[in-house]
Amino acid sequence: MSRLRLDIWSDIACPWCYVGKRRLELALEQFPHRDQVEIQWHSFELDPAAPREMDTSLTHAEWLAKKYRMSVGGAQRRIDHLTELARVDGLDFRFDRLRPGNTFDAHRLLHLAKTKGLQDKVMERFMRGYLTDGEPIGRPDALLKLALEIGLDSDEVKETLEGERFGAEVRSDEQSAAELGINGVPFFVLAERYAVSGAQPPDLLLAALEKAWGELEPTSLDFVDGTVCGPEGC
After folding, report:
1. Euclidean distance between CA atoms 56 and 135, whole angstroms
2. Strand locations in 17-104 (E)
3. For site-directed labelling of 15, which of 25, 48, 86, 163 has its Cα 20 to 30 A away?
């Protein structure tokens, strides 16, 4: 039986990645070979130098304005636009609750979840926890709580958070991203052949799935560009 590999580079702290995840799910609902798609999530840190928990004295609009040298009003309009787009896709973004932080430990837990067949569920919970529920995504106690909700073993989660387990896997994902020239997420690679950048509409993702299904032999990448989150912003 044929299998279609779908590799996705993403960061928990990336709102466009959550939009892209939901749009992919909508596309997969219409794809007749959904059960033969193997999704692999890969780590990509938008801000590897971020502290475990960032200063929350500024609003998200104020933080964006300061970081990207724009007006607070302009930053708020970007936030409002993204919030409305996400709502169309069934997502409730609450930037007023956002508690940013370093996502390296969260990515390590996603690799742990992969060994248990729970990677997609943990990714969903982490994204919702951060972008909707206001969970401090860089704090070990918050990550432990969210991971246990999905069914990961408490001792394994604690062992991972307290040590260096899966750190090499995170760095390997990021090295692969660099080699592929990925500088923004979400980024989808289908059948090791077709690349789709950004949170594309479901119909375009469905078309990419159908095209990749018909040509499962890997060759050079064909590229579709779109909206991403990168180190310079979303």
Report:
1. 12
2. 37-43
3. 163
Least confident of 83-87, 96-100, 127-131, 213-217: 213-217
Q: Residue 179 pLDDT > 80, yes or no?
A: yes
> What's the mean pLDDT when you consider all of the chain?
94
Q: How far apart (Å, rounded) are the C-alpha atoms in residues 232 and 184? A: 9
Beta bridge partners of 185: 229
Are 218 and 200 in contact by the 8 Å Cβ rule? The answer is no
Half-sphere exposure of 79 (CA within 13 A, CB side): 21
**Torsion, CA 131, CA 177, CA 20, CA 61, rounded to 10:** 40
Helical H segments across 181-220, by residue range: 202-214
Q: Is the pLDDT of residue 218 over 90?
A: no
* Rounded Cα gap, residues 168 and 30, in angstroms: 36
127-147 per-position pLDDT tens digit: 999 999 999 999 999 999 999
pLDDT at 76: 97
Give the pTM.
0.91
Per-domain residue ranges of the chain: 4-224
**Run of H or E residues at 6:** strand 4-10
- Domain 4-224 is of which CATH architecture? 3-Layer(aba) Sandwich (3.40)
Nearest to 45 by CA among 19, 17, 11, 20: 11
